[in-house]
Design brief:
With 381 residues, the chain is of the alpha/beta class. It contains 16 helices and 16 strands. α11 links the parallel β14 and β15.
């Protein structure tokens, strides 16, 4: 069994971090998990796989391992029902070196409560603008929701955030200890060829993603654009949008190679969301050589920044952005996407993790062990 000095490492500012090692035991607790299909699930799933390839032991605990109830107003999202006792047993049985709480739902709350009661450290991530999502459905003000989320994340040793603009916004809202954590794209799956030959007039303007109120899809569908609009995906608004926009092609959800063909077969990918924290679909479209049109908000402004040449256009006038994006260089779109790697994403995630026994107790144990080298430190969890 490792002694505490062997299990912990100090960086120059005195912050505890996971030491270099060929293998760590990492537990990720998330309320967003398979069979859900969204950016959070894709990110956590791929990062977990990358960490395993690096030699680490990873356990992802999601709602699929608990009794669940449908989320009010969003029934295809499952909420774990009274998960605390079983979740605690899972954590203690797995005995992680590091705990990451990815979401603020029932599982995240239960894991946070357990860690705080035991004096254990953990990291969190800001994946979703729940305040805006709740506001879109119920018209509740965002300020008290952000205050609650700020308290949730403040209990951790650091909150991972996908973009610079989101870090700046959350800093203004009083969040602290924000850490950069970019995203990646699978360049072997998402590629410029083969291309879908859509059975509609060109140019083809494409949306891919969840078909739900917070995605602001009507802002795209209401645009006066030449050619055709295609919407790929599923969600609670699908049937309503089919009725309201009969001239739009709705081929349903797509995955893997079929999704890549859909991106590649479009002339412009339109991203109308105002509330996403990154937008993995933007990277996927670019990897397929398809330029992006979006509002100048978090996600698009960060991903498109620094591109060599025009790979997309952000504008407060989404129609103007979509028309301008038609003139982008598809080869440059692919080249820009090649700057994003899932391995880099996983390495950043690993670098931000902290030992479970962080905090004043762990530091005191470390000091005691250094002062009394003849006595073994308490390495129990």
């Amino acid at each position: 069994m490792r002694t505490l000095p062997e299990a912990l490492a100090l960086v120059p500012d005195g912050t505890l971090m996971l030491p270099p090692a060929s293998s760590h035991r990492i537990m990720i607790v998330t309320d967003a998990w398979k069979p859900q299909v969204n950016g959070v699930v894709r990110t956590l799933s791929i990062v977990a796989d990358e960490l395993r390839k690096m030699g680490h032991v990873v356990d992802v605990v999601g709602p699929d391992r608990f009794r669940t109830i449908p989320c009010p107003t969003y029934p295809d999202i499952s909420l774990s029902l009274l998960p605390r006792r079983r979740l605690v047993q899972m954590i203690e049985d797995f005995a992680p070196d590091a705990l990451h709480i990815a979401t603020e739902g029932p599982l995240g709350l239960a894991a946070r409560r357990w860690a705080r009661r035991r004096g254990f450290a953990f990291t969190t991530a800001f994946h979703t603008r729940f305040a805006e999502y709740i506001n879109a459905r119920t018209h509740l003000p965002v300020r008290p929701i952000y205050a609650w989320m700020r308290r949730f994340h403040a209990a951790g040793r650091g909150t991972m955030v996908a973009t610079a603009s989101l870090r700046e916004e959350l800093t203004r809202r009083g969040f602290r200890n924000l850490q950069p954590w970019t995203r990646g794209v699978d360049l072997s799956v998402f590629r410029p060829f083969p291309r879908e030959e859509w059975p509609v007039p060109r140019p083809v303007f494409l949306y891919v993603g969840r078909i739900s109120v917070e995605k602001n899809i009507a802002a795209f569908l209401d645009l006066d654009l030449p050619g055709s609009k295609v919407v790929v995906g599923g969600g609670p608004l699908l049937e309503k949008l089919k009725r309201d926009y009969p001239q739009v092609l709705f081929p349903g959800p797509r995955h893997g190679a079929a999704l890549a063909r859909a991106y590649a077969g479009a002339d412009v990918f339109v991203f109308p969301s105002l509330t996403d924290t990154f937008g993995l679909v933007i990277l996927e479209a670019l990897a397929c050589g398809t330029p992006v049109a979006a509002f100048p908000v978090t996600g698009p402004v960060d991903i498109l920044a620094g591109a060599e040449g025009v790979v997309g256009v952000v504008d407060t006038d989404l129609r103007r952005a979509a028309l301008a994006a038609l003139h982008a260089d598809r080869a440059l779109c692919r080249a820009h996407a090649e700057r994003y790697s899932w391995r880099t994403c996983a390495e950043m995630f690993l670098a931000h993790l902290v030992p479970l026994r962080d905090g004043r107790n762990a530091k005191q144990d470390l000091c005691n062990a250094q002062q009394n080298p003849g006595e073994p430190a308490d390495a129990s969890r």
